Amino acid sequence: MTRPLEGRNALITGANRGFGLAIARAYVEAGASVLMCARDAALLDQARAEVATLASDGQQVLAKPGDVSRRDHVEQMAAVALNAFPQMHILVNNAGVYGPLGPVDDIDWDAWVQAIEINLFGSILMCRALLPHFKAHRYGKIVQLSGGGATNPLPRISAYAASKAAIVRFAETLAEEVHDDRIDVNAIAPGSLNTRLLDEVLAGGPERVGQAFYQRSLKQKQQGGAPLERGAGLAVFLGSAASDGITAKLLSALWDPWAALPEHLDDLRRTDVYTLRRIVPADRGLSWGRNDT
User: pLDDT tens digits for the chain (293 residues)?
Assistant: First the structure.
């Protein structure tokens, strides 16, 4: 299908720049009407005007400024969406920050907590706001942005890493809770993107993020990083009917064959592939680690 989101409505957070803006573009090109949300109202208005040029007759491109870490703002964003659209089909939780950079014993604690509030609590608040609507319609798609912080340690970027690991486990848990309501909940790892987060790392310098990570980030900046369009394509797939029944998974936009996953629904349902799990010695070919007593 060239417009797999035809007739669907979505709320996208962090949609005024970077990956969130790329998702908004892709969603409208795929046929969806969208409510774009972000904290910076002026930048959001510019982004909305840009995305609106991609809309066809019958599509709406709306914007509502708001901070996902504030419960009152979340409730206002949800109210605008539910007032504008008779049925909401998709929630894309993209809003996120790196938080303070540096050793955990040397960072601004208030900034660390704020990063958790945005990345973790903000996504949970958005889910809580729209879940009653999804349940009432017995259908919904929740697309959660994750990243490398969920699957690998990120020294000196601890708030981001901790929040992203936590939100993936929350997504897995929520998926189990709402399975009978036909609500699919999945997380995306879009790859290393050249967005403002990368610029923050480079601005922090090796003294804040470590020499190795800084050099890796500098190389990424020079080479272009992962294409935004690839991750946005995965977000479109997870918002479409083609992904119905795929849930509780963490999918890599770059490395996983996500477009072919509908052919493997039985395997996805009966196994823990594409999930966060504990590794035991036997998983790495080691004979020790068992307690047979």
Answer: 589 999 999 999 999 999 999 999 999 999 999 999 999 999 999 999 999 999 999 999 999 999 999 999 999 999 999 999 999 999 999 999 989 989 999 999 999 999 999 999 999 999 999 999 999 999 999 999 997 778 888 889 899 999 999 999 999 999 999 999 999 999 998 866 656 666 777 777 777 777 877 777 777 677 776 788 899 999 999 999 999 999 999 999 988 999 999 999 999 999 999 999 889 898 999 989 877 65
Per the residue annotation, which of 27, 98, 160, 274 is the catalytic one? 160
Q: What is the DSSP letter of 119?
A: I
Q: Please tell me what DSSP assigns to residue 109.
A: H
Report d(CA 35, CA 209) in Å as an integer.
Answer: 35
Per the annotation, the verdict on 160 as an active-site residue is yes
Under a CB-based contact definition with an 8 Å cutoff, are residues 164 and 151 in contact? Answer: no
d(Cα 210, Cα 218) in Å, to the nearest integer? 12
What does residue 187 show for φ and ψ, rounded to 5 degrees? -115, 150
Q: Is the pTM of this model over 0.85?
A: yes
